[in-house]
Amino acid sequence: MDFPSSLRPTLFMTGPLGLSNVPDMSFMCSWRDTLTLPESLPKNSENGAPHLSTVLLWEPETPGPLPLLPPGPDPWDPGVTAQDLLFRGGFPFRRKPQAVLDVTEQVSNPTVGSAVWRGLCTVTRPPFPQLSRFLWDHGDIAFAPLGKLMLENFKLEGARSRSKKKTVVSVKRLLQDLGGHQPWGCPWAFLSFRQRRFSILGGPVLGKSVASLLGELLYEELATRWEQLLLDDAFTGGALAWVPGRTAQVGQLVYPVGGALDKLCFQEVSLTPGGDPQALGDPGHIQLRGPVRQVVTRTVQGESLLAVRSDYHCALWKPSPAWGAGCLQPFRSRLSVDPPGWVMPLSCENPPPLETAPQNHSPCSLRNVSWAPPRPSPHPCWPVSPRLQQVYKDPETLVFCDPSPWRWADFTAHPRVLTVGDRTGVKMIDAQGPPGCGLLLFRGGAEASCQKGERVLLTQYLGECSPESLHPTLHLICTQFSLYLVDERLPLVPMLKWNHDLPSAPLWAQLLPPPRPGCPQPLLLGGQGGHLQLLHLTGEGASAPRLAGPPQSLPSSSDSLSAFPLLEPKSQWRLQERLKAPTIGLAATIPSSASEPVLSLFQLSVAGDVFYQRLHLPADPGPNSCASTASWTPQATACCSRWLKALLKVPPAPPVWAAPTFSHRRLLGRMEQREVEPKGPEALRAAMAEGRLLRRRDLGSLPSAEPPPTPEPGPEDELSTRLEAAWEGQLATWWERQQGRSSGPGRQPKRRKRRTQLSSTFSSLSGRLDLSDATSPPHSPDRASPEARPRPPVTPPSQESTQELWARDVPSERQQTLRDYMARLPLQGDTPQGVSLPLSQTSSIRATPSRPQTLPDGTAELPPRRNTLRGATVSSSQTSSIRATPSRQQAPVLSGSQPHRKKPRMGF
Amino acid sequence: MSDFSEELIRSKTEDDKEESCVFSGTGMSFPWLQKHIGTVETGGKKEKDFAQTTSACLGFIQEALLKHQWQQAADYMHSYFQILEDSDSHKRQAAPEIIWKLGSEILFYHPKSSVETFNTFADRMKNIGVMNYLKISLQHALYLLHHGMLEDANRNLSHAETWRYGEKSSSQEVLINLIQAYKGLLQYYTWSKKKMELSTLDEDDYAYNTASQNMFDHSWKTSVNLRALIQTPGVWDPFVKSYVEMLEFYGDQDGAREVLTNYAYDEKFPSNPNAHIYLYNFLKREKAPREKLISVLKILYQIVPSHKLMLEFHRLLRKSEKEDHHKLGLEVLFGVLDFAGCTKNITAWKYLAKYLRQTLMGNHLAWVQEEWKTRKNWWPSFHFSSFWAKSDWKEDKALACEKALVAGILLGKGCRYFRFISKQDDQVLRKKIKQIKKSVKKHSVVNPGL
Q1: Is residue B161 part of a domain?
Q2: Cα angle: B412, vertex B416, B422; to 5 degrees
Q3: Burial of A895 by CB count in 10 Å (0-12 exposed, 13-18 middle, 19+ buried)?
């Protein structure tokens, strides 16, 4: 195998995460990766221009993914969301958002909230305000178990007990004694001795044990839910897989369905070159005994293999075409539950009953690991093992101490060597070597310039995909922030680092074969929130792997909302929630037969929906083909409407939360009511209890509402004066007057200073962009000696005033620099006509409509895309808010609407 | 005065920085959580309009970049400059880096952008905030280098080299070293160009002397520039390569050897296979004794047993007189073929077939058995399955023959791979297959008696 003959220069430092003293040499620019050092000089001088034609852009055919299958019959509810748990308090908490139990209750004790925020579930102090609220609202839940325990000691109704047992108390008496008073209401309320006795005896039991038990449990639950919301790693690797069929056009999607995700479906799908993918017939399915967390397929020696991971079980099949139809027997394979830190290979213990299983349905060998993906080995050399075999055991994490029990494993280019990963790093171990050996492949630390808090979320061996393109020794390692490519022959030093900036956890990655021979390989990266990124990797033979061109984002299912008809708010909300459901699986395929490569992408959401999108790679991407012109076709909207109709037929999920029930009130209701209670609320309550409509008389004599005060048109009404001024065409003067009036005396100069500085910064930048070369070299090689610089041939009369304008508020130390800029800035009025511009300049100037006469060929061409592009994705309100920025005076780019511009600009 | 207050503010907001990146109890940070927090609206003050528009603008730029809408990104970028006057000093100080990152990316890909545009932008950005001068200069120089503008790049690097700010921190020092090294690399390019010119000149010519003098000056400067960096731990392949080439040219063999040995064997450096390869190639050029070459490749073998130099290593070992070298030679061949990327390496199979026969003829059955012991449970399905027999025969008949011979020797006549190949009827290869059958019969390690 070739090793890159010359690697990219990298600094190597050992140390912990977030070592601030290390300059991050990767800089995170995608373009930096396209830079190659000119290896030999003559070659370099030949093609000095950047090779931009390799920029690949997959064009989506629709603005968002479309549903492939009708929605499942099970209702779905998003459950607890981050918003339910997060709380933003008053000023002191503005910077410290907190997870608290109840949003309606303002937390009075910040330490509790922040403790939960930091995930410390060991805090035993219950959050009293929330808990008392909970006990009050959900007393039946909180006290029912205790109540049941003490049932024999209470008599709920009936006449006075004539029982001989002294231990039975009549509840009716107790409640009568309370007399409708709430115990926490009036401190002087009368307490009977019965009540007193009950309070003294019951208090410790009911108060403390319930509160502390409940508090602990609630805390535990809250912490678990919170962790899960932050990162749900159960579906790492993805629960959707594509099994290629006999022809390129047909294949099977394998995915779990059902509320518990315990039914594995095999849906045959046909990919027609011109049209959308279509599901063929009903899916076949297997009922499993646990939730499916991951589904992986791989073709090994011409055979497709399918592996499934459940929470504690793994299984591996050879799928056959017969799976598409008919029911299959449940297939059991077992993996004993191992303590975290154990990595074990797996084999199937109980093969399926032979009489029901097709011939080629027998389980074959699988090496795999608990707490890890059941990925079929790319190397078909593992013998069928009748029992589990321990490969690796380490209760500790690899690099530094991290409490996460997550472990992961994958294969390497050497069939006997496996990678074992946890949140802190990845290690290579020889499965047949002595225990305890191994070599760290990736270290969460300064070696890879990791940030503070950075953790490994996914590791994947990339070598099995296609031997012809990338080195078969590469491993992908994803963290929350970055993506690393590590070569197992050079451990610890990433060959490539890219800051993916995905707004959710990247848990899925798939390396696809090159769409065309010689093309870079697409790497699909999927985030939990449905975010997709497509990167292009290249680097075969003696060159190091690198990004070919800038990465690209793909539409996510929430982009499809516009394809659905508008609904009434409740259904619309339901649809939105459904489309926003977290993704749990991703599968992509590029059928090779099509003349233009088409990438079919399938996404499985936790709600059980399979969405697809098609992207094609234009044969010759022109320099201006960056506009996404996809729009909804009638077929697409019809498809969405059909799906929506089916979705709305599914009964909505029963509410997770129901209004509290006050069971004791029913008892109280029979008692005498207080006389003094006003009639209005009473009638209201009665109406509510009966569930009938409120009528006017129920409300009684409510205080008559005052009419709202009429707006006073006075001197303070800015809007009308502004409109008046605008009508008279004197908006500018109004604005100046307004400026003068509303600005505070102390604050205004500072802001003005900043803005002017910015504007001048920018105008000097944009001015130079176009006109610099006429009189001066592109760089200012010697900034320290401004006198030595050539001045423009004619000093423009307007220049002095311009300088005045910009120089007014610029700090003195920067004025000189700026003045140097300005000095060499030939303004429009005095640029010598007919000056011969360098060739590289003409293209930029051509785009500026204000000066067509200076061009040699005189063509003035307006870029047509600007407005349409903006309109495509940004609503007009956003546009206006963004355009209304201080730099606006110099801002309009190439728009041509303001012909009097002095400094046309390029770039930005 | 204003600088001082800025410093004060900075030190104060340093603590806040931690909160903006959200951690859980495990110490893991979740960048996506800020988004959730933004959606919670109970109580508290909302973000200021300024911050809202700025972050929205940043989002639009990133979105446009990821959709390759360069013009749109440029338009938004224009509005994003307002962040430079953010009242939050922490944000304001982080802004230039973000602007540089996004702006340079836009200008790199924008169809209407030119080198001049990029230059102007880079020059401007270097002076906004002091902390980024070196980084931006370096990237700017790389950009120019990529565009073939070596002189401009050199000028840029020279500027950056002399730049100092405050006390020299270690990160600054590394960056300056790196800048100097890149400058050295540029000088190396010039030097190698001159060297090529020189090779066309006559030695007696007057021009030759001036040219060689010129070259010498260059090399001296270059060595100064390169030396500092390559002593810092890291991967410095292009620098080391060019430095060694210059040293060698001027006959400083000891210096070159020292640099390479240090690069390969210093424990502070990562185990870079290229370091060993460079050293090996140097020693080979130097005509070092075989022992020495073997000792270098032995280490490479331990790091990368799949490297293509391993076949050369095998040849060296085969030629060696020592018995344990011969044994290692067999081990190396087996080691190469262990890797998934090397399964179709016909040379390796050819060597293995030949060397197996040779070893067995030399009565070293134990060596073969030792190697085979750890592989016999997975090589048959890894290399010698009937799938591979069919596909190898279809794709590369020569490879199939070599593999069949190895399979026959290691697994016996009954092996599926061998059986499949030996049954093939091919006009051209008939004789060869016959030979294979013969050698298998003679050498097979599988005892037919058992």
Answers
A1: no
A2: 80
A3: middle
Does the residue B208 lie in any domain?
yes
DSSP per position, B272-329: -HHHHHHHHHHHHHTT--HHHHHHHHHHHHHH-TT-THHHHHHHHHHHSS-HHHHHHH
Contact between chains at B385 and A3 (C-beta distance less than 8 A) = no
- Min Cα separation B427/chain A (Å): 28
ipTM of this model? 0.89
Residue numbers in B near A863 (CB within 8 A) = 71, 112
**Inter-chain residue contact A414 with B175, CB threshold 8 Å:** no
Q: Which of A92-96, A127-131, A200-204 has the highest mean pLDDT?
A: A200-204
Of the candidates B67, B109, B112, which has its C-beta nearest A906's C-beta? B112
Q: What would the pLDDT profile of B343-378 be if each residue is shown by its tens digit? A: 888 999 999 999 998 898 888 888 998 999 888 888
Domain count, chain B: 1
Q: What is the pLDDT of residue A124?
A: 30
CB contact under 8 A, A94 and B44: yes
CA A200 – CA A213 distance, rounded (Å): 20
Question: In chain A, which residue's Cα lies nearest the Cα of B156?
Answer: A781
Number of C-alpha atoms within 13 angstroms, CB side, residue A833?
Answer: 4
Among A266, A309, A306, A269, residue whose Cα is nearest residue A290 = A309
Global model pTM greater than 0.80: no
For residue A720, count other CB atoms closer than 10 A to its CB.
10
Q: Tell me how close the Cα of B110 comes to any Cα of chain A, in angstroms.
A: 8
B37 within domain boundaries = no
Contact (CB<8Å) A882/B112: no
Would residue B170 count as lying in a domain?
Answer: yes
pLDDT in tens, A354-375: 222 222 222 222 333 333 334 4
Side-by-side strand order, sheet with A482-487: A456-461, A474-479, A482-487, A496-499
Q: What is the pLDDT of residue B50?
A: 80
Residue of A nearest to B389 (CA): A301
Q: Which domain holds residue B238?
A: 166-253
User: Looking at residue A181, what is its pLDDT?
Assistant: 52
C-beta of residue A608 within 8 angstroms of C-beta of residue A72: yes
